[in-house]
Design brief:
single chain, globular, 164 residues, 6 strands, alpha+beta, 6-stranded antiparallel beta sheet
Length: 164
């Protein structure tokens, strides 16, 4: 399964983006360390660091570090943590997730089950209500949601360069 992920750090002169591989990380604290390390490597005195990820047009995740130093995260669909280990990085806790747990039913539920802090990007131009709309509105793919987030936050150009 292909996972695209990028860390964006904000400094006085704008945003800097770096594509990252999430395969070796196991939890939100690891993700926060990755965000800090990436911002430090870019030599930005960051005021905000955001990571965006999406996989196979099935889900997207957003995490953020700011002045508090504590990571906040949002995952578009809780159900994907069973099939996509990278999605677990966007949970504040593993919540006793059992890799062997089987989900009931054979059809795909068309309604996502978002989890996390939908208000984590409020000050970047994406209110929690809009993040929920990007998650639940039919026809919006995860890549489209990330594009909208990046556009509103001011780093759409950097995201486009990394995807190319």
């Amino acid at each position: 399964m292909a996972v695209f992920a990028a860390v964006f750090s904000h400094a006085a002169d704008g945003w800097t983006g770096t594509e990252v591989d999430l395969a070796e990380y196991e939890g939100i604290d690891d993700l926060a360390d990755l965000m800090r390390d990436t911002a430090a490597a870019e030599s930005t005195a960051e005021t905000s660091v955001v990571v965006l990820a999406e996989a196979d047009d099935e889900w997207f995740g957003v995490a953020r570090l700011d002045d508090t130093g504590e990571p906040r995260a949002f995952l578009s669909d809780m159900r994907v943590v069973y099939g996509h280990p990278a999605a677990r990085l966007f949970l504040e806790t593993d919540g006793g997730i059992d890799d062997d747990q089987e989900t009931e039913g054979t059809g795909q539920n068309p309604y996502p089950e978002p989890v996390g802090d939908p208000d984590l990007l409020d000050d970047l131009g994406i209110p929690g209500t809009e993040l929920m709309v990007l998650t639940t509105r039919e026809g919006i793919l995860p890549a489209d949601a990330l594009t909208t987030i990046a556009d509103r936050a001011g780093f759409a150009g950097e995201l486009d360069e990394l995807r190319a």
